[in-house]
Amino acid sequence: MQTSLVILKPDCIEKNLIGKVLDRFSEAGLKIVGLKMTRLSDEVLDEHYAHHSDKPFFADLKKFMQRTPVVIAAISGENAVEDIRKIAGATNPTEAEAETLRAKYGTDVQENVLHASDAPETAEAELKRFFTDEELFTAE
Ligand code: IDP
Ligand code: MG
């Protein structure tokens, strides 16, 4: 069993798509085991997007991610990391496969609906960044 970290970004909140997006994961047989709505601090975003800190869009990306509170979810399944990335689609909505969340609901390469962990090791670090053990439901 794997658990991945998903963040529903401000564009998703503004378009009132929280339920639709979470339902896609439930319908795919994935299980929501942690959920919260909160604002992201500068410090957390510096850490979460450290791989983009030298990019020209970094400041803009942080500003976008702080535009509204976000929904943070821990989602489990046999192959959760890969399954969720598939359902999310490519980073740029114009390059994402039809029916993926980013193709259907994304605005542009920055405002692309959601974050999803890109590997099991990343997921582990990201889950620790946003949830305590007590906040996560353990099935079985
Ligand atoms: P991912 O979210 O598909 O894993 P990453 O390359 O890890 O993609 O980028 C993290 C986030 O940074 C993206 O989801 C998007 O919001 C933003 N981002 C990535 N590339 C660009 C860009 O070229 N311009 C603006 N924002 C970008
Ligand atoms: Mg990424």
Structure notes:
There is one protein chain. The longest helix is centred in the last third of the chain and has 11 residues, at 120-130. The protein has a single domain (2-135), classed as Nucleoside diphosphate kinase-like domain (Alpha-Beta Plaits, 2-Layer Sandwich). It is 39% helix and 19% strand. The protein is α+β, with helices and mostly antiparallel strands. The chain is globular and about 40 Å long. Strands 2-3-1-4 form a four-stranded antiparallel β-sheet. The chain has helices at residues 10-14, 18-27, 42-48, 58-65, 80-88, 101-105, 120-130; strands at 2-8, 31-38, 70-77, 114-116. It starts with a strand and ends in a 10-residue tail after the last helix. The mean pLDDT is 97. Bound molecules: inosine-5'-diphosphate and magnesium ion (MG). Inosine-5'-diphosphate binds next to loops.
Provide the descriptors you would attach to this structure in a database record.
single chain; 140 residues; alpha+beta; Alpha-Beta Plaits; four-stranded antiparallel β-sheet; 7 helices; globular; binds magnesium ion
Summary of the model, kept short:
The protein is an alpha+beta fold. It is built from 7 helices and 4 strands, in the order E-H-H-E-H-H-E-H-H-E-H.
Small molecules (ligands, ions, cofactors) in the structure: inosine-5'-diphosphate, magnesium ion
Give Rg in angstroms. 14 Å
- What is the strand content? 15-25%
The helix/strand series, from N terminus to C terminus, equals: EHHEHHEHHEH
